[in-house]
Amino acid sequence: MINTDSTMELLTQIKKAAEELKAEDIIELNLADFSAFTDYLVICHGTSSVHVNGIADKIYISLKQLGIMPLGVEGKEESEWILMDYNNIVVHIFQEQQRNLYKIESLYESKEIEKGL
After folding, report:
1. How do residues 54-73 score in pLDDT, each as one tens digit?
2. Does the model's pTM come out above 0.85?
3. Residue 39 and residue 7 in contact, taking contact as beta carbons nearer than 8 Å
4. Which label site among 59, 66, 80, 93 has the fewest CB atoms less than 10 Å from its CB?
């Protein structure tokens, strides 16, 4: 994808923006050795559709100020599960009940995948 330093800086900015809006249970999954579509997944949840939208907006604005735009954003209308594609990092922002329903982190449960906090 892109160089490792840029990826780590982007990952730090995404997590910082999510933390500033009080996103809950933020995790990162390092998929660089296992995935052709992205290097990292960042998964978190909010307490309501307004909270989920706020987290997505904070990430978007924070990265836009750095000149970084997503390749795509899906789910803003419903705000139950927003996906933001930053190429080498894909961000999933759920409402808690949706996160518990889909459990996407369980799709990647493996001793080989590094789980960061």
Report:
1. 999 999 999 999 999 999 99
2. yes
3. yes
4. 66
